[in-house]
Amino acid sequence: MAKFEQFIDTLKEGTIALAKENFDGFDDEVKRDVDAFIAESKEDLERWTVLLATGDINAQDFRDLVEAKKAVAKLFALRQQGVSLTKLDRFRQGMIDLVVDTALGVFV
Question: What is the distance between the alpha carbons of residues 101 and 23, in angstroms, rounded to a whole number?
Fold first, then answer.
């Protein structure tokens, strides 16, 4: 599934850019947290992107499914560094938006 790997690679690149906007000097922590989110969500994301690509679900359905996964983005490494909850929530929502936008760009 080359498209799915493209999706994951684009997602990782995007989260690094998002992290630079939100956090200064926490690149390693962001990478660990994003990798953990992707690892925990990979099966669901793969299944949902197939449904999105085949038209079995629409963009809003996909967004709703991804929003439900928000709790999986625990961001442990960033929390351990003392990043405020407000910044973590902003980053978490930005990451969810990035997942949806990236999937729409790759699969639709």
Answer: 21
Where b means 16+ CB within 10 Å and e means fewer, 45-74 reads beebbeebeeeebeeeebbebbeebeeebe
Domain that holds residue 25: 2-107
- How many domains does the chain fold into? 1
97 in Cβ contact with 5 (< 8 Å): no
Tens digit of each residue's pLDDT (9 = 90 or more) over 34-89: 888 889 899 999 999 999 999 999 999 999 999 988 877 777 777 777 777 888 88
CB 107 within 8 A of CB 51: no
> Could you give the CA distance from residue 56 to residue 77 in angstroms, rounded to a whole number?
36
Question: What's the predicted TM-score (pTM) here?
Answer: 0.83
Tell which wins on pLDDT, 84 or 17: 17
